[in-house]
Amino acid sequence: MTLDPHKFFSILERRVGLTPEDKELLKSQADWGLEIAPKMAEYFYDYLERDPEMSVILHDGSGRIHRLRETFIQWFHEMFTGMDNWGDVYAERRWKIGLIHVRIGIGPQHVVPAMATVIYEVGKRLTNDGKSADLKDALGRICMIDLAFIEQAYIEVSSSAVLKETGWSEGLFKRLISTGAKAM
Ligand code: HEM
């Protein structure tokens, strides 16, 4: 179960429906994205800090919260620039972000509502700044792709760890999951 980030990006791009027009639109608004990124980071971390479990993770005494504000701004801006036109560099970066969250123990229950917060706050700002509905849709699509990377990293890492530890085949593992789900 080793994921090829580039292939995974292509699959998601098709499933989510991110079009070349979306990419052009995002790139044309990259300066606006960078301008609003610090404010979005503020909303984002205020939201995380209101949750007791996530607040503990953020304040681990190593200055995480400060590093994170900077990396959030960078991440947010990259959604507009696409880094290398949403190619290998973009996909690898999204995969790495996913793996970092898995290592820290941040799962779907944390990440999905966090991304919903980003989408909600950007949506409000788009309206205030008179931006188009097309831009809102394009941003929603790229946010979903980024979210899918973090979610998939969680599945891939968990599955690989079980397979490595037990020596089970992938087929057996899938059958066990299916049986377990039926029994729930
Ligand atoms: C929309 C979802 C999220 C996005 C886009 C996001 C983005 C990022 C990025 C870009 C990094 C830096 C990765 C690197 O160092 O290369 C990061 C790391 C991290 N994120 Fe998130 N994040 C999300 C959700 C969360 C949530 C829900 C938490 C919960 C507390 C969280 C906590 C952290 C922590 C603790 C780190 C590592 C910081 C460090 O020690 O340097 N993130 N995140």
TrEMBL record:
InterPro entries from the xrefs? Globin-like_sf, Globin-sensor_dom, Globin/Proto
Please give the SUPFAM superfamilies that the UniProt record associates with this protein.
Globin-like
* All residue ranges annotated as the Globin-sensor domain in the record: 15-157
The GO terms this record gives for MF are: heme binding; oxygen binding
Source organism's superkingdom? Answer: Bacteria
Q: What is this protein called?
A: Globin-sensor domain-containing protein
